Amino acid sequence: MRITKKQLAGIDQYKYSGVDKSVVSKHILGPFWTWLVTLFPKTLAPNTITFLGLCFVFANVGTLLVYDPTYSGRDLPSWVYFSWSFGLFAYQSMDAIDGKQARRVGMASALGEMFDHGCDAINTSLEVVLCAHALGLNRSWWTVASEAASLCNFYASTWEEYHTGTLYLSAFSGPVEGILMICVIYLITAIHPSGQGFWQQPLTSLIPGSFAAQAAHSIDETFGLKGNKSIEALPVNVAFMMFGALGTVGNIVNSYSNVLIARKKAGKPLLAPLLGYLPFAAHTAILVFWLQAELRGGVSLVHDARLLPFLGYWGMSFSYQVSQLILAHVTKSPFPYWNGMMVYSLFGAVDANAEWLFGR
């Protein structure tokens, strides 16, 4: 990614602004992070701490590749899921203290924030891969939907920061409560005798008594829902995905609300910022179009072993897109509507769908 001389001049004017409404980070994790940063020498660069945390996540992905390289949904040893929980918590902790280390040693900078956000974007995509495996979703459209929703959530926060100049963390945010929730998912999968099977059982089976099952049955009869489409058969993992979708929608609405307030104060157009979602929406649409292409044997890429490297490409291209946006934010540059990675994705999508598009 190229930084122009004009952008370098804009970096000098940048000043970080953040609002954290999380009770967990303020009263529980905050004191822990304040203590943790003192364990690192002052000679250690803040970005090095962030990268060390990301290495824990890379190690987690490495264990997945060792035990289930084709992402087929094979149950992994319990210790692997325990290590995923520890690795993610370690990343969260190191990601939280890099700013403290920067202020501690006088190395706070705009480029440091760019590096931090880039690492966060990579981690978000990789955790979708790991979490979908722990939930027993694996090669499915639910995994694809989870990737799109998680990255959209991240993009919305970055888009909000660009237009407001402030990074907002709500009372329930991805970097704090969201990560802790995923850590718990890994622990449950590790501890439960059936592993992934815990998340694949009907949601009603987890609720004591017969009321939940009877209520679900009544809803199914009312709306004519049968088989896998019925509420009674709704798996825990799918219910979790639906819950996550609601959270994503809520975060987008909250982000736009903050942007509206900032735009009104500045006397700027209120709808124009929504155009900033077009680059993300366009690239996501291209990637989904690529994924639905049929391979030899009549299966789509979603249900093939190549889904795993594809998700890796998706995550890296998203990290580049977010880094463009952060660069524009810290340098006061125009919004980056164009993303060169879209060209590569478009070529791949057209090639994968060539038979359907061109009849050959």
Automatic annotation (TrEMBL):
- Keywords for this protein: Membrane, Transferase, Transmembrane, Transmembrane helix
Localization terms from the record: Endomembrane system
| The enzyme's E.C. designation | 2.7.8.2
UniProt KW Phosphoprotein keyword: no
Q: Does the keyword DNA-binding apply?
A: no
- The enzyme class is transferase
The pathway this protein participates in, as annotated, is: Phospholipid metabolism; phosphatidylcholine biosynthesis; phosphatidylcholine from phosphocholine: step 2/2
The cofactor(s) it depends on are:
Mg(2+)
Q: Which GO terms describe its cellular component?
A: endomembrane system; membrane
Which catalysed reactions does the entry list for this protein? Answer: CDP-N,N-dimethylethanolamine + a 1,2-diacyl-sn-glycerol = a 1,2-diacyl-sn-glycero-3-phospho-N,N-dimethylethanolamine + CMP + H(+)
For this protein, the parts annotated as crossing the membrane are 49-67, 79-97, 167-188, 233-253, 274-291
What's a single GO MF annotation on this record? diacylglycerol cholinephosphotransferase activity
**Record membrane topology:** Multi-pass membrane protein
Q: Which family does it belong to?
A: Belongs to the CDP-alcohol phosphatidyltransferase class-I family.
Its protein name is diacylglycerol cholinephosphotransferase
